[in-house]
Amino acid sequence: MTVEPHRHEIRHATPSDLEAILAIAAASPEAPRWQPSGYHPYLSPESPNATLHRTAHIASCEAKPLAFAAATLLLDGEQNICQLDSIAVHPAARRQGLGTALLRAILAWALQNGARHLALEVRAGNAPAIALYRRLGLVEEGRRPRYYTHPEEDALLLGIPLP
Questions:
Q1: For the chain, which residues make up each domain, given as ranges?
Q2: Which pTM value belongs to this model?
Q3: CATH no., domain 8-161
Q4: I need a labelling partner for 61 at 20 to 30 A (CA). Which of 11, 23, 97, 129 fits?
């Protein structure tokens, strides 16, 4: 599957996208394995309180969802950290800019909502993802030894201050 440049659409995900998100996550071995109910807070437009916000974005081509990203923003009045909780691109649609477009959409959402920092965790061996994050300016901020299982692997903590 080839996605032509600029033919993809990035939009906020809705509850009707849950089945597609689950299919993309299932096809992506690197993606976290969440229960379907774990996605519900990201797909609802209302925030449960003024300090915690969640969002999910979908990348699609010709109305077919091919990738998604989910993030949480904690507005604590000091650090205001946005955590990229999950990002996955269907294997057949990788290396076509969808991950970059999704991460930029999450960064824009975070900035619009008052974030001062974006952070994420990534498997230390996931070179393509690390290269994407570094291209967008994220730097290593720490490491969690043996954080992941199956296989056991360290997590790199990456982040970027937001203007």
A1: 8-161
A2: 0.90
A3: 3.40.630.30
A4: 129
